[in-house]
Specification:
mainly alpha, globular, iron, 360 residues, transmembrane, 74% helix, disordered N terminus
Length: 360
């Protein structure tokens, strides 16, 4: 078989790699949703905002939030007390800074929130690729960054182009939480921005796929990357944005991180035994381990929802002028962005030796 033909080999739905079954679950889930909503669109069916909001809240709060906590919990195990304290300090500083920005310049805060979603989805996916079906077609740091921008950009750029009214409506709500009517001065430019974002993202997709094809080595990593990239674009182009984002993180991001964890056998670098505030979890006494795990779960829940309550109290209009449950989508989108910023910056980019997306 020629190299060209080998590059175009159809990827297996269930890759024969560690974590391959979990990867397949994510692929099937998004493909099924894409097909279902494509059929619904042709049939003229569109779910109400209320229905979309309920699906979003179920996906982001009930399904995805526990996984985010697990990523940090797993990363902070077997680390020194000094590292844990520094990690927590940087995390809280980032949260405080983001909240301050939202009150001082809510439009800039909204822009940062969009950037955080892109970075989390893109760089999280990049690490999954590396440890599962491979990323040998990404032969430079430029290509890696491009891949992250394309995969993460699909989460925001594609809905901006295909669902502009919905995206604008919820963007206005999120700004209204801190400054009612604050988005009005720039709303007139939204249509232009939509075409610039759509055109720019399309160019990035073409560049990513073309450059990856040229540098493909025939291992199948390029074909898998290209298929998943096109699946993400199709998913966010067809599924209503509120539902699409609400189910993307639990069904794709979190599920694929489980696949990455499954594929890694080696103990992360920088690990210690019997040290740190989570040392109880390494005890030989199962009762102590159970007690420690319970304590961590309770502490994490109290801290998370305590921060949400604080933001709710401080925000002049926490529901962004909308009712329940639609307003809760705007509130939760901002809140989850606030804790996702240190999730990416501190949990991965700062902690380069190990990090929440550890790849040996």
């Amino acid at each position: 078989m020629s190299e060209h033909a080998h590059r175009l080999t159809v990827p297996k739905l269930v890759p024969e790699v560690p974590g391959g079954t979990t990867l397949a679950v994510a692929r099937v889930a998004l493909l099924a949703l894409t097909v279902a909503f494509a059929v619904a669109t042709v049939a003229g069916f569109e779910p109400s905002f209320r229905t979309q909001a309920i699906v979003y809240l179920f996906g982001m709060v009930a399904l995805n939030l526990p996984h985010g906590g697990f990523e940090h919990f797993n990363n902070l195990r077997r680390r020194t007390v000094t590292f844990q304290v520094r990690y927590l300090g940087l995390y809280l500083t980032a949260i405080a800074g983001f909240i301050a920005l939202l009150f001082v310049a809510p439009i800039a805060g909204l822009t940062l929130a969009i950037g955080v979603a892109v970075a989390k989805g893109g760089y999280g996916d990049l690490h999954v690729m590396e440890v599962t079906f491979g990323a040998d077609h990404l032969q430079s740091e430029f290509q890696r960054t491009l891949a992250a921008l394309v995969r993460g950009g699909a989460v925001m750029a594609v809905p901006i182009f295909f669902f502009p009214e919905t995206f604008h409506t919820f963007s206005a709500m999120m700004v209204d939480m801190f400054e009612p009517g604050g988005l009005a001065p720039v709303s007139q430019y939204f249509d232009l921005t939509r075409w610039l974002v759509g055109g720019g993202f399309g160019a990035l997709v073409v560049a990513h796929l073309a450059l990856g094809y040229v540098r493909a080595s025939g291992t199948g990593s390029y074909v898998a990357d290209a298929a998943e990239t096109l699946l993400l674009v199709g998913y966010f182009a067809v599924v209503p944005v509120v539902i699409a984002v609400g189910l993307y993180f639990p069904l794709w991001y979190s599920t694929r991180q489980v696949a990455r964890t499954t594929a890694i056998d080696a103990e992360p670098t920088g690990s210690t035994t019997g040290e740190g505030v989570l040392a109880i979890l390494d005890s030989d006494d199962t009762r102590l381990v159970a007690l420690g795990a319970w304590g961590v779960l309770i502490a994490g829940s109290v801290a998370t929802f305590g921060l949400a309550a604080l933001l709710w109290t401080l925000a002049p209009q926490p529901l962004g002028g909308a009712g329940i449950p639609v307003g809760l989508v705007a509130f939760w989108s901002i809140f989850i962005s606030i804790i996702a910023l240190p999730h990416v910056v501190v949990g991965s980019w700062y902690d380069r030796d190990r990090g929440i997306w550890y790849v040996p």
